Amino acid sequence: MPDTLPHTLRIPPRPPAPTRVRGQVDGFFVLRRNPLELWGAPAYEEDILFGRFLGREQVLLNAPDAIRQVLVTNAEKYGRSPATIRVLRPIIGEGLFLAEGAAWRHQRRTIAPALAPRTMGLLARHVVTASEEFEAGLEKRLYRPVQLLPLLQLLALEVAGTSMFSLQTAEFSAELRALITKYGLRYGRPGLFDLVLPAPYPSTLDFGRDRFRREWLAFLGRVIEARRAQPAPDSPRDLFDLLEAARDPETGEGFGEAQLRDEVSTMIIAGHETTAVTLFWSCYLAALYPDLADRIAAEAAPLDLSPETAGEAIRSLPYTRAFIDESLRLYPPAFLIVRQAMEADVIDGRAIVPGTVISISPWVVHRHRRLWRDPDVFDPDRFLPGATPPERFAYLPFGAGPRVCVGMQFALTEAVLVLARLLRRYRLRLVGGGEVMPRGLVTVQPDRPVRFELAPRT
């Protein structure tokens, strides 16, 4: 492979777009198998698409102005869909992600200071400490095929555990991963009745979700009890200390025990899996395009990325950050944002009646022909300082508007630091042939186990 590839050759794999309009039955089975195969060529070319699915009006939005209308301007007219609530509530409860109205505003005001930029130094320390242990473990696997995704999931879990609780997660990680895997495989994707039944009526999967909820809460209770058994600090050690001490700046109200538990659950679930798959796809792209990985290694080589200084050093990693941003464009972990119209509205001159399902897919928007130059090409330079920024509401890896992911800066800090440290230490090579296709499950996952070979850089 040449040292530098023309950027037009850097087109990583994606599922082919269907060439015919799918029927509703076919569409449902595709939704269950791989939602990334749902959208045909018009979805990547048109601003707005209208249709019907399972008896409901459906709208796919790609136009930034229309996306802004739903997520910001008229956000109060749109809520989470019943299917979204059914799937997520058993594992994250009434946390920030699902909260609405006054409850959401209280939670957002209370949580935001704990994840403000001033706390990134504290959290970066936890990231680098976990990353050092991760790299030490990789030393035993050099020159041998290794599956990075499960290791990255464990790393992200370790970061979540230490940054949230200052606890080594060895005691809890196996049970936590088992519970999350169990939920994802059995209950994490909507079934037919989840999509068609009104919210008050339980679907066939909801009974199992209720049983899981009880098991999950018991597990979280044990973790929190172990955390509180530690001596109280003079200053915050982690996110749990920050959340326990957090107060709504308008009301002075903190979190009750049940609410604190749901916020902890939301941060663990939303944070660790999305960061792990972001790092997986970044490693996959680094192995596909080693000349770009070399640029990250060269950028990171002179920096002190130790726990004490990483929070400051991250400012000196602009290309690594651009590489992560472009990875998030082509492989956004959260590939679909769904809202349901609660009130009447008008979008692009078309009446939106209550009950209409509004879909905004970062997977589609990030590859849209009218919004991006060479949309299927992997080109981190488009995110470097000085490059023309993407149109607002055309880049949505963390959502947008008032409900943009509150942990965005922490997730980016973790991804940039881990990738910079990893690529300055190792070269990555893919083992085995065949393209790796992305598959939309709860997050965008590879369609099969992917093996890498790691070799030390000199």
| CATH class categorisation | Mainly Alpha
CATH fourth-tier homologous superfamily? Cytochrome P450
Coarse morphology? globular
Percentage beta strand: 5-15%
Question: What value does the Rg take, in angstroms?
Answer: 22 Å
Q: Helical percent range?
A: 40-55%
Which regions contain 5 or more consecutive residues with pLDDT less than 50?
Answer: none
Output the strand order for the largest sheet.
1-2-8-5-3
Give the terminus-to-terminus CA distance: 20 Å
Total domain count:
1
Structural class by sheet pairing and helices: alpha+beta
Estimate the mean pLDDT confidence.
87
Please outline the helices and strands:
Blueprint: H1 24-33, E1 48-53, E2 56-61, H2 64-73, E3 78-80, H3 82-92, H4 101-111, H5 120-138, E4 146-147, H6 148-165, H7 170-186, H8 192-196, H9 206-228, H10 239-245, H11 257-288, H12 290-300, H13 310-313, H14 318-330, E5 337-341, E6 345-347, E7 350-352, E8 357-360, H15 362-365, H16 408-425, E9 426-431, E10 438-440, E11 444-446, E12 451-456
Parallel strand pairs: 2-8
Antiparallel strand pairs: 1-2, 3-5, 4-12, 5-8, 6-7, 9-12, 10-11
Helix pairs in contact: 3-9, 5-6, 5-16, 6-11, 7-9, 11-12, 11-14, 11-16, 12-14, 12-16
